[in-house]
Design goal:
Layout (H helix, E strand, L loop, with lengths): L2 H16 L12 H15 L10 H4 L2 H9 L1 H6 L17 H13 L8 H13 L6 E6 L10 E6 L7 H8 L19 E2 L3 E3 L4 E11 L5 E10 L4 E2 L12 E2 L13 E5 L10 E5 L3 E2 L6 E3 H14 L3 H5 L3 E2 L19 H27 L4 H4 L3 H15 L1 H4 L6 H34 L10 H25 L4 E5 L5 E5 L3 H23 L9 H26 L5 H33 L7 H5 L21 H28 L18 H16 L8 H9 L1
Parallel strand pairs: 7-8
Antiparallel strand pairs: 1-2, 1-6, 3-5, 4-5, 5-6, 9-10, 10-12, 11-13, 14-15
Helix pairs in contact: 11-13, 11-19, 13-15, 13-19, 15-16, 15-17, 15-18, 17-18, 18-19
Protein name: G-protein coupled receptors family 3 profile domain-containing protein
GO molecular function: G protein-coupled receptor activity
Family: Belongs to the G-protein coupled receptor 3 family.
Length: about 700
Amino acid sequence: MSSQDNFESRTIGAVRDDVMVVQCDVTRRTYLTCLILWTLLVATAAHRRRTTAPHADEEGDPGRLLERLDAAGEWCSSGAEGGGAAVRLPLHLFDTLVQKVDLVARVIEGTTPHDDRMLQTVIEETVQSEPHSPSGRLVWLGNGTFHQPDLFLSVRAQPERNTLLATRMHNAVLSDTLEWMTGSVPSSVGNWTSPYFQCEGRRWMVSYTKGVVSDKERLSGVLSVDVDVGEVDVNQCDRLLPSSPWQMDAFLGTHRCHNATTTCVFSPGFGWSRGSYRCECRAGFYSATGRPAFNGTLVEAAYRDKITLNSPTYDMLYICKRCQPGCDTCEDDSPCLANYNWAFRISLLTISVVCISLTLLLSFYVYRYRKLKVINVASPVFLCITLLGCVIMYCEMAAIFPVLSMSSCIATKWTRHMGFCLTYSALLLKTWRVSLTYRVKSAHKLKLTDKQLLQWLFPILLVMCIYLGTWTVSAPPRALYIRDWEGLKFKQCDYNWWDHSLAIGEFLFLLWGIRVCYNVRNAESVFNEAKHISWAVHSITVVNIIMVMIHLVLVPDAGPDVKYLFGFVRTQLSTTVTVVLIFGPKFYRVLKGEGDVWDNRARARGVTASFSLNGVGPVLEEPQDLYQENEELKEEVQKLASQIEFMKIVHMEVNNRHLKPKHGGFFSQPTNTQRSVCMRFDAAACADSPGSRVSPAAELISEKV
């Protein structure tokens, strides 16, 4: 006897054993109950003796279900008929089969088959039209009972057969996506069985059953069609693959990939097999074996050995290692971040701190010697502002010393640009005053004191603060990773249109400063401060252009230490050179003891101390008002004019033989009183010599005369 015959006989026997007395003459009122009974009988009784029903705790445990899948082959080898698993399947993929079975069931309703061949042909064509339906069967009661049905048919699909009728039936299936099918209510009352393993074909299957009701409201039979679900894949990953509908969701999340270091990638096409996935290292991790992904079957075996045998294979081979800091992806343990030479950077920072200390000490000495002519003429307030700006620019080396972050980038922008603004605004405003003084020939048209220059300096600083503050609040500079010439990454502050706009503005400011310095190139001032400021402005302009060329053209891929060195060199060539040029000559004269002595070269060329091109007015702690000074000069001129006129008269009449002396007159015979008056006027005239000036106003008048 064949296995198919055994299967059929066991099916009928199971039905007879389960239902001893069931009347087939049912009314429509009990139709649903009878249909359910037949569905259970026909769909499950055929597999009762070969299917071990899962326990309640196994139905909801995906791990237990996986174990049942692995044991399916063992059941067959042990002589059992197979096993089952209560899992959810994507049964919507077989909606066409459901439509066909329902249609066949309606066609044969009320039919009294006189020839078994007709029913068998209908079932064969139905099974043959579906690629995933290997077999089907029909239990026809007719006038019989459950004990003795009139007909039991079982057919199998023949892959080599492809009849015209089967092709037409397959192509004529109505899809739910058709316009007239939209919103329709499912009318099928059939049922699906749980998946079971068929040892004969060694495949997983499910069966769809449909009751057949005659015109006399009798249950005439049950139609059952088997479906091969072996192509439905077991997906153990965390989510379904959108591009593959042939996968079940009952085993989601049962993979054995190490979640912290790897991610599960589903591999479709392996059917009902465990381990149909691969474990790929996550971003920032690498495989110790050098392979980018691990086979899911091997991972399952290694994990099982770890649990049962405490084997270290899983931890050694299938757990990815973390990449080196800064690596987004990596293939081995190679570093991705550039190394920082901290000893070298600390040495440069130490030099910068020493420069800051010396600059602060220099500002203290400027305040201490503020009354000396060499300091007083140069405006001590602006000298201190210049030194403050230099200190801020030196602080940039501390801002870029650590590994850059957003806060350090903000500090870098503020120290660099605010220090530049303070230092060179103070210097160029003084030079601009020199330029105006040099071009103005009348003292009545010039009134620029230190207080007025400070009023010009305040708006410049306010504009810079508003720009930097807006930049910091709206789009703070971030530290981005860039690569050096060795491919290693390090952080550098990003450059955008905020930087470019400010750089263009500072460059235009320096061009204006160069123009002002060019205007005063021939001006002679006390202690030559205008010339020193011109040198400093030209120096910072050239240094900035050279450093931009180095950063962008010559060595754009330099490492972090080299870029820190470039920043140090730029700071020293701009800030330190400015301090040396502006304050070096002044304190050199102070050390020589000539800090309170006027510049002889300027005096020899006719440049007086009171009208030096470095300032306006006499050298006093508080500059005098020009109008008041002009009035004092007028008084001095009138006094000197009257004295000169009196001296002319006296010298003309004394001892003049052409004049007849009057008795008792002033110019008669000179008396002792008259001689003393003449001697006093002569002494006053001698005191007005250029070698001994008593006041700035008198000095000017003596030079004019």
